[in-house]
Design brief:
mainly beta, four-stranded antiparallel β-sheet
């Protein structure tokens, strides 16, 4: 049975950095696209960034473009979200989700709440505050 486990969240000051990890087990991440979502208090989930087959196929939501970097290491069966220049508005629970590459059209079109994902984790809290 497939599973995703996020880690790396925490409390960081504005302008700081965090690196979130998404470890997959029970299925090969090589054949899956990965999405990072976040949910701030009182708000719905929003897609932050997505990656397809490799680092050459990525998508970023406008508010994180230039600050966040998504990557995936198929050999380690793990995806990451490097978050730099963090802002208080980045505070949220961050989730990773996965869907088979055969189920998507493009990375951009899969990166939204309407996409059906096959696996997702329990989330990791990111708090940006001074």
């Amino acid at each position: 049975q497939g599973q995703l486990v996020e880690s790396g969240g925490g409390l960081v000051q504005p302008g700081g950095s965090l690196r979130l990890s998404c470890a997959a087990s029970g299925f090969p991440l090589e054949y899956y696209a990965v999405a990072w979502f976040r949910q701030a208090p009182g708000k719905g989930q929003e897609a932050v960034s997505c990656i397809g087959m490799s680092d050459g196929y990525t998508y970023y939501e406008d508010s994180v473009k230039g600050r966040f970097i998504i990557s995936k290491d198929n050999a380690k069966n793990t995806a990451w979200l490097q978050m730099n220049g963090l802002k208080p508005e980045d505070t949220a629970v961050y989730y990773c989700k996965a869907v088979g590459l055969a189920q998507i059209i493009t990375v951009q079109t899969m990166c939204n709440v309407d996409q059906r994902y096959e696996f997702w984790g329990q989330g990791t809290q990111v708090t940006v505050s001074s």
